[in-house]
Each structure stands twice: as structure tokens, then as C-alpha cells.
Amino acid sequence: MNYTNDIYNFAYSSLSIVEMEIRKIRHDSTELWTRGVQPALWLLLFGEVFNRVRDLSIPGYDYIQFLTPGVLAQSGLFCSLQYSMG
Predict the structure, then answer these.
(1) Measured distance CA(64)–CA(69) in Å, rounded
(2) In the prediction, which pLDDT does 42 show?
(3) CA 47 from chain center: how many Å?
(4) In the chain, pLDDT over 90 holds for what percent of residues?
(5) What is the pLDDT averaged over residues 20-39?
(6) Main-chain dihedrals φ then ψ at residue 57, nearest 5 degrees
(7) What is the mean pLDDT of the chain?
(8) Nearest residue to 25 via CA among 86, 74, 73, 69
């Protein structure tokens, strides 16, 4: 097996998807806003609200520090699902 060709094909396919998404965002800027608003809403609004609840606090950490990895994973999962349906 030739791994160089596999890596080249993977990189070419990935860059093709990136190019397609950049073109789509350039023509429809609301897509960029919707992708950015949801994580910001979770972190800023819900993170601050749940941070004030004493039952959910973790000693030594803010709730936002606890919530951030989950929000990033959720955003990545939703973007990948949208790409797969597209």
C-alpha cells in the first residue's frame, strides 16, 4: 500500500470541503453568525447563570471552565452532522 497517496487524497478531499464551505460562507454570511452565536450563547448566558448556582459549582473551577470543552465538542459534532447531510 502506498500511504503517500492516501495522505494526499485525504488532504485533497479535506481542502476541497474547506474551500466549498468558505465559498458558502462568503455568499451567505448568516451561516457564520449562526455558527458563532450558539457556542457564545451557551458560554456567556448559560455558563454565567449556572455558575451562580451553588449546587453545580466544582471546587477550584468556574462552571464556564467545566462547560467549555462540552460546548466545543457539541459545536464540532453539529458542524460535522451538517456537513454529512449536505
Answers:
(1) 9
(2) 83
(3) 17
(4) 1
(5) 80
(6) -75, 145
(7) 80
(8) 86
Q: How many helices (H) and strands (E) does the chain have?
A: 4, 0
Three-state DSSP at 61 gives strand
Residues 30, 38 contacting (CB under 8 angstroms): no
Residue 46 binned pLDDT confidence (cut-offs 50, 70, 90): confident
| CA pair distance 11, 40, nearest whole angstrom | 30
Cell for 3?
Answer: 500511504
> What is the Cα gyration radius of the chain?
18
Buried b (16+ CB within 10 A) or exposed e, 18-39: eeeeeeeeeeeeeeeeeeeeee
Contact 51, 63 (CB under 8 A): yes
pLDDT at residue 86, as a whole number: 64
- Taking the C-alpha atoms of residue 52 and residue 65, their distance in angstroms, rounded to an integer, is 13
- pLDDT given for residue 60 in this prediction: 79
